[in-house]
Design a protein that fits this description.
By secondary structure, the chain is an alpha+beta fold. The chain is built from five helices and six strands; from the N terminus they run βαααβββαββα. The longest helix has 23 residues. The protein is elongated. The termini are far apart. Bound molecules: zinc ion (ZN). The site of zinc ion (ZN) has 8 residues, from loops.
Length: about 150
């Protein structure tokens, strides 16, 4: 996505969890704990992938995109489909996206990455130009008023 920035990749943390699991230091019940909310979000707003679940290896993973930010108001913390994100990115200045992978088979879930989206990430400052226009229009108004006197 064009305005994507400040990407944080959590694949190292994920690998560490999987290593712990293989070593038997954590159980599958510790890592396969997707909440009903997360699973619903995956069903209704999730992005299917062709990657197999690393735990049960029988289902493909689904990616859920959660959005956070002051501008979102009551929508903050909700899941959004991937196709909705570019639209939001053009409307809002800045919001945070958290991507979580979920297996609907065994309830495995893990944060994949986070990043910022929004118009603030666009290069080329068109707002500067409109501000200038506003100032000159104001100046024109003042001149007109002076001319009337
Ligand atoms: Zn699974």
């Amino acid at each position: 996505m064009r305005t994507q920035r400040q990407v944080v990749d959590y694949s190292l943390q994920k690998r560490a969890v999987l290593r712990e699991l293989l070593a038997g230091r954590v159980g599958t019940y510790d890592v396969c704990d997707a909440s009903p909310y997360l699973k619903n979000a995956a069903r209704f707003h999730g992005e299917p992938t062709d990657r197999r679940c690393p735990i049960c290896r029988s289902e493909n993973l689904t990616l859920v995109h959660y959005i956070y930010g002051d501008e979102l108001k009551q929508s903050a913390g909700q899941a959004r489909t991937l196709t909705e994100l570019p639209v939001l990115a053009m409307t809002l200045r800045e919001f945070q996206v958290f991507v979580v992978e979920v297996c609907l088979g065994c309830d495995w879930n893990h944060l994949v990455e986070q990043y910022l989206l929004g118009r603030d990430g666009l290069t080329g400052d068109s707002e500067g130009i409109s501000e200038q226009d506003a100032t000159s229009a104001e100046g024109g108004g003042r001149r007109r008023r002076e001319a009337q006197r």
